[in-house]
Each structure stands twice: as structure tokens, then as C-alpha cells.
Amino acid sequence: MGDLFYGEVDYFHGIGRGYTGYEWISRKATGGSSLLSAGCHAVDGLRWFAGQEAVEVFGYANWSRGNPLGYEYEPNSVTLVKFADGQMGKVASSIECVMPYMFHILLMGNRGAIRNNQLFTNRWPGQTGWATVPTILPDSGAVTHHPFNAEINHFVDCIRAGAESHCNIADAVKTHEICLASDLSARQNKPVRLPLDEETTECA
Length: 204
Hints:
By secondary structure, the protein is of the alpha+beta class. The chain has one domain (4-140, 168-203): Dihydrodipicolinate Reductase, domain 2, CATH 3.30.360. The chain contains 6 helices and 9 strands. The longest helix is centred in the C-terminal third of the chain and has 20 residues, at 169-188. It starts with a strand and ends with a helix.
């Protein structure tokens, strides 16, 4: 794929009244926003693929007509992210969508692109279409396909070795900083620079 210059990671999961987490997710005080309640996983993914610090965020958010699910905040958002090395990224998050769960990934580099489990590259002369890689896709909100055993093993290994995990609180703060900046940007209708300072955080 070469050097990444653009990435999309989207979280689409319709969370209605029949969903077990609806009561807390739908409330502003406990769900917060589309990104904070669910789309943060897509922000995590975008940061992972970019491998760079985010420096600026712009966000939009809305309800569908009539707010049929009764969310206390806009359950749909689009977040644009600028990274330190010039990469651009986009995270769309919808928790009132009417469609099957989807965790969409699109990565573009100067030698090719990845779209979910498909690959196209100019390193393979003669390739005329997407090559499909057989694999398990994150295509369910039930998360039964997630590698929980491997995650616990990694956590225990870090404890035994006295080592810090790459997936630690400091890293989680950077993901949530993007989420908060997007929510703030959507309210103020202007880009928000990162890292957030104390005054900006108080406004959020």
C-alpha cells in the first residue's frame, strides 16, 4: 500500500430501544455523544492505522428527522482528522442507522488501497480488480468474534513482565480527546486544535 495519506474507519450500529445498552447509551449524561458511546472504536482504529498524532479535528453531528429513537444528543456524526505528518482521516458514526452492523475500513496509500478485506496495489502487475483476503470481519455488534482471550493474555503478560501495554490509559486519552474535540467542533462550527488545553476542555 505504500505510504498512507488517507484513511476512513466508520462505525454503523443501530442501537434502538430493544438493545440492552439503549437506556444508558441514549442519555446525554451517560452516553455523551455518538463517538463517546460507540464510535470511539472507529477513532481508535483510525489512530492505529495512521500511526501519527492528531493535530486538528472538525466535526458535524445531527439527528434523523423526528429523532425516532429519542436520543438526548445527536446520534450521527462525521469527524475529520488531520495528523501531524499531513495524513487525513474520516470517522463516521451512526447509532440510529437502519442497516446491519458495519465497521467499515478504507485506507489509501501511494502504492495501493485496502477496503475491509480487499486489497489493490500497483505492486502486482496486471491486477485489474480488488483481491479478497479470506478472513473474519468485525461484522457484528455482538463482539463474539473479538480476540478477548488474547487481550487478557497480553494484559497478564504485561503484569508479569512489569511492562506497559501499547493499549494503555494514555493512549485511550488520545482517542477520547479526538471524540471530545469533534463534539466541541460540531457545536462551535469550527476546527479544534489538539492537544486540548484546560480552557478548551472546560468548554466541552
